[in-house]
Design a protein that fits this description.
Layout (H helix, E strand, L loop, with lengths): L3 E5 L11 H6 L1 H14 L3 H7 L2 H4 L2 H23 L5 E4 L3 H8 L5 H17 L6 E7 L3 H11 L5 E8 L2 E7 H13 L4 E4 L12 H11 L12 E2 L4 E2 L6 H10 L4 H10 L4 E5 L4 H9 L4 E5 L2 H10 L1
Parallel strand pairs: 1-2, 1-9, 9-10
Antiparallel strand pairs: 3-5, 3-6, 4-5, 7-8
Helix pairs in contact: 2-5, 2-7, 5-6, 5-7, 5-14, 7-10, 8-9, 10-11
Length: about 300
């Protein structure tokens, strides 16, 4: 019997039209979008299905949009296939979907919180002041040395330890540009400036983390019914008492995704389902451990394929 994990994607996996296929075919998906529309007091569903892209990619819209698609797919998979996960994880924003799936957060609370999260992260740094870049082909220690050498009094730090040979750095725009140039001199295959609106997961986000703490304060947290790995510690939440603390820290700390996946594999997980838009996490898994089976699930035909395997 395969031990399965459910994984949930983060920002960058969004596209206009996401979620429409499952909503056209499953009432529980439509109900999920209606729940989000009601919680947010605007038609998130219309933005996901019809765009415009310029509005969808605004961080405060992107985050609740991806979360909603992920939970819609999760609920359809649950009702149509009966598949249940042994463990859960989500990449950055995706950790909120994992906590909803674990029963720790209600979906309306999560979707409202991540809208604020996106707003605070966008507002933390004026546009143009911060940047991010993906460094390809260097080891972890080399990237950490790179950040130390190129900071020059500015903020510069690893933001996403995604997989072997792919680490995203974040900080002041000039420092990130210096590091991107220096990375190639150090033997990196490439260093690509990312089309993001803010420098996520570094100390420039401290103000956003502090604001998020105030939003999370009244949110009810329940017991974790299915184990969840936190991005910050790359380990399972010990109890619900750590959830708010680690979600706050997550905003200005790096996402330790590679370690999180290695922890799951060491725990005996041999099959992964990526629930939500895109195939980013499947791509990363192939670099982390090519022997681990992973399937991206977002559309009706993919859900029907899963049903055949049960």
């Amino acid at each position: 019997m395969a031990e399965r994990a459910f994984l949930f994607p983060g920002q960058g996996s969004q596209y206009v039209g996401m979620g429409k296929n499952v909503c056209d075919n499953f009432k529980i998906a439509r109900d999920t979008f209606e729940e989000a529309d009601e919680a947010l007091k605007f038609r998130l569903s219309r933005l996901c299905f019809d765009g415009p892209e310029s509005d969808l990619k605004l961080t405060e819209n992107t985050q609740p949009a991806i979360l909603t698609v992920s939970i819609a797919v999760l609920r359809v998979v649950g009702t149509e296939t009966g598949i249940t996960p042994a463990v859960l994880a989500g990449h950055s924003l995706g950790e909120y979907a994992a906590l909803v799936a674990a029963g720790a957060l209600s979906f309306p609370d999560a979707v409202t919180t991540v809208r604020y999260r996106g707003k605070f992260m966008q507002e933390a740094v004026p546009v143009g002041i911060g940047a991010m870049a993906a460094v390809l082909g260097l080891e972890r220690a080399q990237v950490e040395q790179l950040c130390h050498e190129c900071a020059d009094g500015q903020v510069l730090a690893p933001a996403n330890y995604n997989c072997p040979g792919q680490i995203v750095i974040s900080g002041h725009t000039e420092a990130v540009a210096r590091a991107a140039q220096r990375a190639k001199e150090m033997g990196a295959r490439d260093a690509i400036m990312l089309a993001v609106s803010a420098p996520f997961h570094c100390s420039l986000m401290k103000g956003a983390a502090e604001k998020l703490a105030r939003v999370l304060e009244p949110v009810q947290v329940n017991d974790i019914r299915i184990p969840v790995i936190s991005n910050v510690e790359a380990d399972y939440y010990a109890s619900r008492d750590r959830i708010k603390e680690l979600l706050i820290q997550q905003v200005d700390h790096p996402v330790r995704w590679q370690e999180s996946m290695e922890k799951m594999i060491a725990s005996g997980i041999d099959e992964f389902l990526e629930l939500g838009p895109g195939k980013v996490l499947a791509g990363l898994m192939k670099r982390i451990n090519r022997h681990s089976a992973i399937q991206s699930v977002e559309k009706t035909e993919q859900i029907k394929e899963l049903t055949k395997k049960v």
